[in-house]
């Protein structure tokens, strides 16, 4: 059973918010004792998700939760927007696929950086990506 020890919610709409979110994630990862490598993996994943949120939806929210499952501690991060949504999640998760002439490594790359990755999206309603990293 996963328990949540503390949660922080941030509104995201610009580059300043992105920097603030990265700093908050790093501070919480340090507090939980993540290695420098894992801190970097988590902040890189968060940067990618937030950049997507700003680019495709104009912004959204990010929640950071300290979580515990038995003796394991971790971070769970939820990025949520009310943008146009993703019509084909399977296609969006393919390496090299992009709707904006990018490299198409964003979502699949983010998935590789974390231990758990879940994405929900509905056209016209938005997208929510939940990632977790365990120590």
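^ structure tokens above, recovered residues below v
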């Amino acid at each position: 059973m996963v328990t949540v020890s503390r949660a922080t919610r941030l509104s995201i709409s610009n580059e300043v918010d992105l920097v603030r979110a990265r700093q908050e994630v790093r501070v919480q990862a340090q507090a939980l004792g993540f290695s420098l490598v894992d801190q970097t993996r988590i902040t890189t994943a968060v940067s990618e998700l937030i950049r997507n949120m700003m680019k495709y939806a104009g912004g959204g929210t990010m929640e950071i939760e300290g979580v515990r499952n038995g003796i394991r501690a971790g971070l769970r991060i939820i990025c949520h927007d009310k943008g146009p949504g993703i019509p084909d999640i399977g296609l969006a998760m393919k390496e090299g696929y992009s709707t904006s002439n990018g490299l198409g490594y964003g979502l699949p790359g983010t998935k590789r950086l974390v231990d758990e990755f879940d994405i929900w999206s509905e056209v016209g309603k938005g997208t929510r990506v939940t990632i977790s990293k365990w120590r």
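The chain has four helices and five strands.
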